[in-house]
From TrEMBL:
A Pfam family the protein falls into: Peptidase_M14
Molecular function terms from GO: metallocarboxypeptidase activity; zinc ion binding
PROSITE patterns, sorted: PEPTIDASE_M14
Domain of life: Bacteria
Protein name, per record: Peptidase M14
Active-site positions on this chain: 242
Length: 388
């Protein structure tokens, strides 16, 4: 059976949408308590458990963590897709056995349970845990560092989501991105960085089959406050995963699939013959640019401007009653010829009316844009289809 066919029929259906909290995963942790070793390695600032899952018994120790930023849940879904795949007994059994005998994979499915519950990037104290690697001021940071020191991993996986604003010069969006973080201010290509780069190249090779031209690389400016940079500086290869946007998949159900494939490639479960990779090719992966928006309306005539302009709209993610609502707002107004939209419309020089009807300014919430002379022509309308 091909892996994409297996995935389509067997991914973890108990986790859907963007809002994933500890309450979402407790039933799955209970389901797997006899299959995997699950421990509580620490507590959050608000006293929630921070569970750690152990998979395999091999000599290669890998430590991963998801939802360090509480509102970045795509990789958490992919982790449970991976757990379900490893636990099944019908397909890819020799490959799974090879993984279990070669690796011991420890993973925090939700490192920041308070932020996950609140659907915030930061923890309950408003601290970005990915800027707390040196101070270790928060209990969640201390938990991760304690596991790192105890387990002494040979590889770390820092699992995140990226916003829908990233793309490439040629116009394609960045659906999945990676980074081998810098180990110092000079961005020295250390041995640890080379190892991380080779793993990234392997995952890139796999993902090119599914989303060609949509895999990116993050800027590697050094920041010692970041966890990945700190671990890389300590000589432990560390990979940043960034699960991004795919077309109109605002609940990131397709992107979770691609992260799942990336994990299979990394752990040598698929594409096992792709090992002799030159780390220098990592720099051939295109670097992300902030050149995408959720929606662009081209060639608009505004009252206070003589030239036609483009208007970009972006969505804010708002938690309401455990549902994520996508609220549109004006992000940019101008020429924007090098900006791309997942959806684009052309006003062809027409004047527009907006709801609310006020002067368009960057940051303003908006629900509708229509043609001033032909009100049946609706260029943009807020819809509820993105609700999970």
């Amino acid at each position: 059976m091909k892996i994409d066919r297996w995935y389509g029929n067997h991914f973890e259906t108990h986790l859907r949408g963007r809002y994933i909290s500890m309450q979402s995963i407790y039933p799955l942790l209970d389901l797997y308590k006899r299959t995997y070793e699950i421990s509580v390695e620490g507590l959050s600032e608000m006293g929630q458990d921070i569970p750690l899952i152990k998979i395999g018994d091999g000599d290669k120790i890998v430590l991963g963590w998801s939802q360090m930023h509480g509102n970045e849940s795509t990789t958490t879904k992919a982790i449970f897709d991976f757990l379900k795949f490893i636990n099944q007994k019908q397909f890819f059994q020799s490959e799974i056995e090879g993984f279990l005998n070669s690796y011991t994979f420890y993973v925090f499915p939700i490192l920041n349970p308070d932020g996950a519950e609140l659907y915030t990037r930061e923890n309950a104290n408003g601290v970005d845990l990915n800027r707390d690697a040196q101070d270790l001021s928060q209990m969640e940071s201390q938990c991760l560092r304690g596991a790192f020191d105890k387990l002494q991993p040979s590889l770390c996986l820092n699992l995140h989501d990226q916003r829908s604003i990233y793309g490439f010069k040629g116009g394609k969006p960045a659906t999945v991105s990676f980074l081998s973080p810098a180990a110092d201010k000079n961005r020295t290509v250390t041995d640890a960085r080379k190892i991380a780069m080779q793993f990234i190249l392997k995952m890139n090779h796999t993902l090119q089959k599914y989303i060609p031209g949509q895999i990116g690389r993050y800027d590697d400016s050094f920041n010692e406050a970041c966890v990945g940079d700190t671990f890389q500086n300590m000589g432990v290869p560390t990979i940043l995963f960034e699960a991004g946007h795919y077309d109109q998949d605002y609940n990131r159900e397709k992107t979770r699939e691609y992260i799942f494939y990336a994990l299979l490639a990394l752990f040598n479960i698929t594409d096992r013959d792709i090992d002799s990779l030159n780390y220098k090719d990592y720099f051939g992966i295109p670097e992300n640019k902030k050149n995408y928006n959720d929606f662009i309306l081209r060639n608009v005539k505004l009252e206070n401007r003589q030239e036609v302009v483009s208007i970009t709209i972006q969505y804010r993610e708002i938690l309401r009653n455990e549902i994520i609502v996508f609220e549109p707002f004006i992000d940019k107004i101008g020429n924007l010829e090098n900006q791309y939209g997942y959806v684009e419309e052309n006003a062809k020089g027409s004047e527009i009316l907006t709801n609310p009807q006020e002067n368009l300014t960057v940051g303003t919430n908006i629900s509708e844009i229509i043609d001033k002379k032909d009100k049946s022509m609706i260029y943009f309308q807020k819809i509820n289809s993105f609700l999970q």
